[in-house]
Amino acid sequence: MAKLKSLADLQALYEASQPIMADRKGPKRPSGTKTILVCGDTGCAASGSVPIIENLRKSIEAHGLQDKVKVVRTGCFGFCERGPIVKIMPDNTFYTEVAAEDVEDIIETHIINGNRVEHLLYTDPDTEETIEESENIGFYKKQMRIALRNCGVIDAENIEEYIACEGYLALAKCLTEYTPEKVVEIVTESGLGGRGGAGFPTGKKWAATARAKGDQKYMVCNADEGDPGAFMDRSILEGDPHSVLEAMAIGGYAVGADKGLIYIRAEYPMAVHRLHVAIDQAKEYGLLGENILGTGFNFDIELRYGAGAFVCGEATALIHSMEGKRGEPTFKPPRTSEKGYNMKPTNVNNVETYANIPIIIRKGAEWFSSIGTANSKGTKVFALAGQVNNVGLIEVPMGTTLREIIYEIGGGIKDNKKFKAVQTGGPSGGCLTEKHLDIPIDYKSLTAAGSMMGSGGMVIMDETSCMVSIAKFYLDFTVPESCGKCNPCRIGNKRLAEMLDKITKGKGTMEDLEKLRNLSINIKDTALCGLGQSSPNPILSTLDNFWDEYVEHVVDKKCRAGVCKDLIHYEINKAVCIGCGACARNCPVEAISGERKMPHFIDQETCIKCGTCVTKCKFNAIQIK
Amino acid sequence: METMIALTIDGHFLQVPKGTTILEAAKSIGIAIPTLCHYKLEGQGIENKPGSCRVCVVEVEGSKNLVPSCYTECKEGMVIHTHTLRVIMARRTVVDLLLSDHPSDCLVCPQAGKCELQKLALDLGLREITYSGSKSVYKKDISAAIIRDMNKCIMCRRCETVCNQMQTVGALSAINRGFEAVVGTAFEQKLEDSTCVMCGQCVQACPVGALSEVDNTRDVMKALNNPKKTVIVQTAPAVRVALGEEFGMEPGSRVTGKMVTALRQLGFNYVFDTDFAADLTIMEEGTEMLDRIARYQAGDKSVRLPIMTSCCPGWVNFFETYYPEMLDVPSTAKSPMMMFGAIAKNYWAEKLGISREDLVVVAIMPCVAKKYECKRDEFQVNGNPDVDISLTTRELADMIRYLGIKFDQLPNGEFDRPLGESTGAAAIFGATGGVIEAATRTAYELYTKKALGKVDFQQLRGLTGVREATVDFDGTPIRIGIAHGLGNARKLLDKVRKGEEFFHAIEIMACPGGCVGGAGQPYHHGDFSKVEKRLNAIYEEDSSMPIRKSHENPYIKQLYKEYLGEPCGEKAHHLLHTHYFDKSKKNYGL
User: Chain B residues with CB-CB distance to A under 8 A?
Assistant: First the structure.
């Protein structure tokens, strides 16, 4: 490919590449061509999408359909619960939980005979009817994919597919039509806030870096996604890496930087690979490098690898890590926009923030700011996890309620259990309850409720979750992830975790609860960086919302969820037990005894509370007391 | 003109220059905000303010969280409260947490009574440790000079700053994460196997007992109580201007006479002076310097210049580790302490008819690295060291306290002869620039064959980190470089190595201020004005001496006449000179 040397070159390529997307953009063509989209992202790949792609290619060849049918490995569709996902375009048929063995059926029934493969279609749990189009599935109805616009649509390793979806046209528009000041103005007016979690206005950040004086400036992308269970950024980088590269170049133009750095965890090998491919292709096409599109603007991007330290998501720690120093934060000010990487003005934005930029430039600030709430514009991507029927990656307009996410998109609580709490904001966030379900999600409302937006982790919990254990889980995460620099975080969090451990073991006192709250408040007030200032949030929010449960652990020595091993024991209900002996045979410590066909008995002294008997009993005779 | 910032602290309105921190601003109006991790050597460009201990937090109106005052610069219109209940409770909690992860063995800690954490807990009125839980446990690392007891580390990072920024040695750095975070060496090597040069500035900086010198006072007590042994002591020039501080005297008090009396009361058979050996060092080093300069002036380009001083053991370790290709550049003259040992165990012992095994040479040094130096293999004869034990100024003070001696009330005593006689030139060895000034006094007269009109070379003095001066040797300009602190030494050496600067001679001391700021001196807790006062006292000591040039010391003349022969002669070479080793690869055997 010869380098694109002008806006006209890019526009010509855009026009020329339209046929690639014809199937995907519809309508059906007389030629009857089809494009089969298969999710090849980490999640679906893990559940077996790679052999599906191989089988599809083989089958297409065997049936001599090469000219008519194309297979594309795409990024994440989001519906990970029902992966691997296969979508046939332009028919707009959405197949779920596809296996490699289903391939022949898809080719013969659907591609050759034009019929739907019924058993691969999604069945609505309420109506029990199959649904063909993804848009009509509950999981997708309330979603709006802006940051994820190309995930599940294009082949991330083919720059021409990105260009065919108006890729790099936003950069071209900035370079040829807008002054750098105008670009900052558009981003500011769009109301876009930092998607890393705090929601700091992106335009304001860019303006500060643009204003800062320096012979060299940097655009940095924070791809150090670290919240437990979160994979928003990973999915964007795997599914649509060019959107981030394009945005960084736009930002570079706006703030006066000619160098971009992506700080990415080395544990994201697929994202790293796709970024490398994307950067190489962008350079080959002249969309990165020197004199981009003949405008005289230079911009280059390099990767920097993180070793998986949660604290390196904090901007100053991230910069120190990139510089080869110990990944620990320093006090702000000076802000990174003044003294960042190598003490030069540096703009740090998160992956999802960048992914919004090109489309904002193309569609305008007004379009973007019309989405969302008064103080939070646009959409937010969440990694929905926990005890809901539909776990996966979702993107919703700001202002969507937690209830809509949990019950409509998430399809409600698994096994018809009772909803108990929703955790947002990861280790920095908090647990919200039933009474918070109808608040419209935005930065302010979540903070006001005692949690925070965070980068997008969202864990749903049912009645089987013990809230003291949940708080302990997050503290157990934070303690080793603290950099250890400041005393409140290094020692204070350890003491919090130890107190929680004591409480879950039934050894806590009411005084401990008071200490827990006091120390939490103190750590928030004195810790050096955002990690320490927010790490006690899971404790404070659970103390506020689940005080009774703490008191039960301390006073009654009971765990109502049956999670805390030291506070429970198992008993066999004599009225229900038929004496089949399954429990006794499977007990690893031979704690269960009893005559055949007679009710069995658990020796509490010997029992290690592993719970194996409960899972083996077919008659629900074993109860947690 | 400086931009001024107006602000309010605890109801007081004040104006401070832009860039002033809240801590400095409060201090300027007499408000003391407690600190712990903060450590600043005023005028030396060294400041540790990671903002990590959170003890100095204050309330700033409009700010959501408390802010660290050591780090935060004053802004126009700031309203600051330094001692509200919220602030005090936060400080108490922070110290409480530190104590919860700290061994409670304060009574037997090397820092007992001098510990900054102990003082802080006292000032904040902590009566119990609220939080309990697991404690950090590390193995004690004992080297020849320094003990690391990381169970006591509070992660203030002072040692890291002095080791990396001030000394550019880079042996210490924070390792691990979370509760396990601690200051350590690369790959958790023992200090002795690391790049550590034993300068001990980390010990001087440590606010708690995590870093301390090896305690040798018991060894000395044992020797003193052994009737078979003749125990003699030598005292370095910088000790006499600092020892008084240990007994509540003003920094810079000259206590030479009291120190001699105290040493006699401790039971030393002879009280000698390292200053005598300092004069001897000048004879050897000065002669070597003149020889190199003369050969250079005569056109011999193979001569390695600049000649560099070699009195400081931290510096010797530093160039052996970081400048192995320059091993032939420094003077081969031993340090005064080792020269004293060699003379005592050979010339003097022979004279008195004592075997070297029955003679115990104790050195009182302002230095931690000296403990390492006297253990070096090349300074042993058949396993018997020239200097048996080196104590720090602090350890001497400890011994004086063991005996219940009322130091400030002691009468003045005098050093024994012959190894106790010295000149003003030897006295200034304890100050940065002093060795080279002493050498210049002698070299000038030997080179020009003329008497010096004025012995004070003001251009060689001061506390600037790197100094350069030209001394006129009767028409021959002699270029002299001086650095104190190893980071400054590195700057100077790199200039020389790159050929950017030419010097005939360079003096380097590892510690800031020279030996007066030595790691073995009374803790200054970051108050560098104490070091400056000691430095001034050194020059007073010099001025008060009847003889101020080493080559005029009558006992030195006698020593050469009776025993050594010529300076740098065969015997002198054998006894008073040494050689250096390449230590750059010592830590490859991981």
Answer: 50-54, 57, 65-66, 68, 71-73, 86, 89-90, 93-94, 97-98, 100-101, 130-134, 154-155, 173-174, 176-182
pLDDT for residue A438: 95
Q: Is residue B589 predicted with pLDDT exceeding 60?
A: no
For the segment B322-339, the average pLDDT, to the nearest whole number, is 94
* Nearest CB partner across the interface for B97, out of A309, A487, A525: A487
Nearest to B97 among A326, A333, A488 (CB): A488
* Beta partners for residue B174, in sequence order: B183
Residue B232 included in any domain: no
Mean pLDDT throughout B149-160?
97
Report yes or no on B59 lying in a domain.
yes
Q: Do A482 and B155 touch (CB under 8 A)?
A: no
Average pLDDT, chain B: 95
Q: Which residues of B382-410 are buried (b: 16+ CB within 10 A; e: fewer)?
A: eeebbbbbbbbbbbbbebbeeeebebeeb
pTM of the shown model: 0.92
Instruction: Give the total number of structural domains in chain B.
Output: 2
Q: How far is B366 from chain A (nearest CA, A)?
A: 32
The pLDDT score that the predictor gives to residue B1 is 64
| CB atoms A491 and B97 under 8 Å | yes
Share of chain A above pLDDT 90, in %: 84
Written as six digits, the tokens of B546 are 């009847």
Q: Compute the average pLDDT of residues B433-437.
A: 96
Tell me whether residue B196 is in a domain: no
Contact flag A484-B180 (C-beta cutoff 8 Å): yes
Best to test chain A binding among B93, B99, B124, B160 (most A CBs inside 10 Å): B93
H-helix segments, A453-560: 467-481, 487, 493-504, 510-526, 530-534, 537-545, 547-551
- What per-residue confidence (pLDDT) applies to B590? 45
Tell me which residue of A52, A59, A106, A125 sits closest to A84, measured CA to CA. Answer: A52
Percent of chain B with pLDDT over 70: 99
Report pLDDT digits (tens) over A360-415.
999 999 999 999 999 999 999 999 999 999 999 999 999 999 999 999 999 999 99
Q: Would residue B374 count as lying in a domain? A: no
Which burial class, exposed, middle or buried, applies to B326 when counting CB atoms under 10 A from its CB (0-12, 13-18, 19+)?
Answer: middle
Range of the domain at B515: 282-334+423-555
CATH number at residue B441: 3.40.950.10
ipTM above 0.90, yes or no: yes
CA distance to B184, B265, B429, B430, B435, per residue, from B535 (Å):
33, 28, 10, 8, 13
Domains and CATH numbers, chain A: 20-133 (3.40.30.10), 166-369 (3.40.50.11540), 379-462 (3.10.20.600), 467-556 (1.20.1440.230), 569-624 (3.30.70.20)
Asked whether the beta carbons of A317 and A332 are under 8 A apart, the reply is: no
Residue B503 near residue B305, CB atoms below 8 Å = yes
Angle at A534 between CA A487 and CA B133, to 5 degrees: 45
Q: What is the pLDDT of residues B287-320, one digit of tens each?
A: 999 999 989 989 998 888 899 999 999 999 999 9
Beta strands of A96-241 (E only): which ranges?
A: 122-123, 130-131, 218-223
Residue B551 makes CB contacts below 8 A (sequence gap 6+) with B279, B282, B283, B286, B442, B445, B446, B557
Inspect the interface and report whether the beta carbons of B177 and A488 lie closer than 8 Å: no
Listed in sequence order, the residues at least 6 apart from A113 whose beta carbon sits closer than 8 Å to its beta carbon are none
| C-alpha distance from A331 to closest chain B C-alpha (Å) | 7
